[in-house]
Amino acid sequence: MSQKERKGLNRFKKMCMVTLLAAGMLASVAGGARAIEFKAQGEWLVGFGVGDASLAKTNKDTDGVKTKGNDADQFGAAQRIRLQLDAVASEALSGTVYFEIGDQTWGKSEEGGALGADGNNQIKVKNAYIDWLIPQTQARVRMGLQATALPNVAGGSAIMDCDAAAMVINYKFNENVGLTAMWARPVNDNFSGDYVDGNGSSSTEKANYLDNMDLFMLSAPLSFDGVEVTPWAMYGMRGKNSLRGLDEDYDRWDNWSTSDGSLGLTLPGLTPGFNYANLNPLNSSSTGKQYGSLFWAGLPVAISMFDPLNIEFDINYGYSEAMGRYDVIKRGNSADVVRGSTERQGWLAKALVEYKMDWATPGIFGWYASGDDGNVKNGSERMPSIAGAGNFTSFIGDGNLSWSPVANACDWSMSYAGTWGLGGQLKDMSFVEDLKHTFRVAYWGGTNAPSMVKYMKDASSWQGGFGGDGPYLTTNDGLLEFNLVNTWQAYENLSVNLELGYVVNMIDKDTWKKDSYYNGSGNGSFDKQDAWKAQVVFQYSF
Fold it and tell me: What predicted TM-score, i.e. pTM, was given to this entire model?
């Protein structure tokens, strides 16, 4: 073989080696890509509806100024998209990111629904977390932004059901006994350092100082033949500045709006609608304490051993430590100022009994929650909550899709605090293939003492609790709710929801006009009305 031929052969060998090396690299990359499996799922909601959720037609303040109870459009069209992407390396390791686009009201520029559809501020990260299994154990860990619902049955969680930054560890000892631990940090680094103190004077502290809220929950899921019990307890600590600066609109201080809904600030023990001596009630409760204690406990029980009979009941208790006191004016007499306590503690019991039949599942449900006793000096007797989401019903409650295209007729997240109720339902009635109906009727009563009205600013103060506890109902007040939810499964992944809701307003005007006065100049007035909504929502999910 000539030297020229040998050189050509060497070049050929080198080319082959380079080709094989490149092929190997590509194969390794492809193999690595195949090792991570990507899974996608999502939901599109497009809806149209009419409604008016206001329970007051008009309001007249203490100066005689008359306003409409609801000045928003009665008709609305909107959409919302949620997309979830899971990167699965194995059964022991995965990551999830969950995006939300919307709500986008059709025609609204700032939400990207106007001409051109070019809004750029509606894409949000709803969840982002890692799931992994501790090596050589059966302990599974989830850490990151995630859904944090406390154990519950019969009507949803009245204490906390929302997205939050958290770490959750689950361990299953056997098929009957498990253990779950959670650390969540729903609030931190929101305090700017500037606030108004209890005397109405501007004050300054170090930014982000003592403004964290941390929650530590432990539960023990127990599952036996036909019986599931999950006793749980949660301790929390909130810095004295943790709830300051969350909402600069002090007329709505009880309602911290987030992309996931409203976080009801019921923890301070302050009542929306009170005739506070200071215009900024959230900052009127100054305290020398650095941290205050929070505590909740629950016992949800589900019994299915008597199938087709299903029985569920849930007992909850909550406590929020006092973080100072506040001044509230009694019966409008500025000289009669009472020092109220910011302590808040209370309890709730709720239950559901249903019997599954071929054509429907009839059932009855009810609840009873402790209410204020009429004495603000000893604090509030309503159970505190982080973000309640009661779902017995789908108008006052948070049932069905928990979403409405009508801005003023959305489902109201409720904690049940200060109320009692009794209802009946016919769930999943079906007379035609792929078409189901659910009908509910429920009465909402109040457990708060009527004498609490003497601390209210005016006669319409009962409306101030939406987004947290709901309307403030005394034992003389009531609401009667009707729901009809119809679901047509048009395709495997497309359903059409037609929902009708009506609330009969039984607020007792005499109670609220009798005791609430403001500086001796009268207590204002309101013209009550019933609330209603009708909506159709198209749901595409995969």
Answer: 0.86
